[in-house]
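Morning!

This is the sequence you dropped in the shared folder:
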Amino acid sequence: MAKKLKITLVKSFIGKPEDQRQTVRALGLTKLHSSVIKNDTPDIRGQVRKLMHLVSVEEIEA
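The structure's back. Tokens below.
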């Protein structure tokens, strides 16, 4: 079974640097408290690491 990550935007990205804003949008997060489920890949882990101060992450089994 592949691992997946549930990524939830818990803090606003208003006023943050443009690269962080683009990363939030690339993950598919649009509104505060919105969530997306992504495959656990090194690319996604890197994006999450960049946004650790804005998102919460849960590992789920799919």
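Headline: The chain has a mean pLDDT of 95.

More detail when I'm at my desk.
O.
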